[in-house]
């Protein structure tokens, strides 16, 4: 984990998609003075499940997976994060350790806003606290939906849904080219709740049907419409 010159909150393009959009320029300047920023390489842990919450994590750039470890030791990806997303707020609000881990999927830059500045906004900025409540409700709703789908949908439908989630989360706005993302088969399996072997087999089936192509770890989605049809078959 390498220290470097921190991005400035006031000029950060990612803040317009984050909780910090609710903060004034003066407050953002104060946060910039009190925060730290770090760069992470793919596979590096940003924070660990069960560790103490140190502040509010703001993703400046990069792709991140949020994971939990089951009783059998297997990893489950419960959420994805990108530029503009904020992490670690639940542990701050409840005063409990992190309930999940955050791990870089590629090279990332993440800023850590201090607890003091987080609670200053929570206690004095109604727009900030309202946006936080809305974010908590949205994440809970998405988690409930994913839990049901993992429990009841066949693997084929879960793979289609996982690929669509990756595309919705990480596709650059306005990009009209077929969406391509490099992701390990272990991570894709952890996202859809199955094994690496089953994931690889299902990807081969989708490839044979012309839905996608693969090259190494990279997956290119050729037919998002077909993925939607498969993912919603049992809805």
Automatic annotation (TrEMBL):
Cyclic nucleotide-binding domain location: 19-122
PROSITE patterns named among the record's database cross-references: CNMP_BINDING_3, HTH_CRP_2
Classification via Pfam families: cNMP_binding (PF00027), HTH_Crp_2 (PF13545)
The keyword Acetylation belongs to this UniProt entry's keyword annotation: no
Record flagged with keyword Magnesium: no
Domain HTH crp-type: 153-225
Gene3D superfamilies attached to this UniProt entry: Jelly Rolls (2.60.120.10), Winged helix-like DNA-binding domain superfamily/Winged helix DNA-binding domain (1.10.10.10)
SUPFAM superfamilies in alphabetical order: cAMP-binding domain-like (SSF51206), Winged helix' DNA-binding domain (SSF46785)
Alphabetical keyword list: DNA-binding, Transcription, Transcription regulation
PANTHER family assigned: CRP FAMILY TRANSCRIPTIONAL REGULATORY PROTEIN, HTH-TYPE TRANSCRIPTIONAL REGULATOR ARCR
Name of the protein in its database record: Crp/Fnr family transcriptional regulator
Source species: Hymenobacter armeniacus
């Amino acid at each position: 984990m390498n220290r470097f010159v921190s991005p400035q909150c006031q000029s950060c393009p990612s803040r317009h998609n984050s909780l910090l959009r609710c903060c004034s320029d003066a407050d953002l300047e104060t946060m910039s003075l009190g925060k730290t920023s770090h760069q992470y390489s793919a596979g590096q842990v940003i924070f660990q499940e069960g560790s103490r919450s140190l502040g509010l994590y703001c993703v400046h750039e990069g792709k991140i997976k949020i994971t939990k470890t089951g009783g059998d030791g297997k990893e489950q990806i419960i959420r994805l994060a990108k530029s503009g997303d904020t992490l670690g707020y639940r542990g701050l609000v409840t005063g409990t350790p992190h309930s999940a881990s955050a791990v870089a999927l590629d090279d990332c830059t993440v800023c850590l806003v201090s607890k003091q500045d987080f609670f200053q906004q929570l206690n004095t900025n109604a727009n900030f606290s309202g946006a936080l409540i809305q974010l908590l409700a949205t994440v809970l709703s998405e988690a409930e939906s994913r839990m049901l789908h993992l429990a009841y949908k066949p693997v084929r439908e879960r793979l289609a849904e996982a690929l669509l989630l990756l595309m919705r989360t990480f596709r650059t706005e306005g990009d009209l080219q077929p969406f391509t993302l490099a992701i390990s088969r272990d991570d894709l399996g952890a996202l859809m709740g199955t094994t690496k072997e089953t994931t690889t087999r299902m990807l081969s089936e989708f490839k044979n049907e012309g839905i996608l192509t693969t090259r190494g770890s990279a997956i290119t989605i050729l037919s998002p419409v077909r993925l939607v049809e498969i993912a919603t078959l049992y809805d």
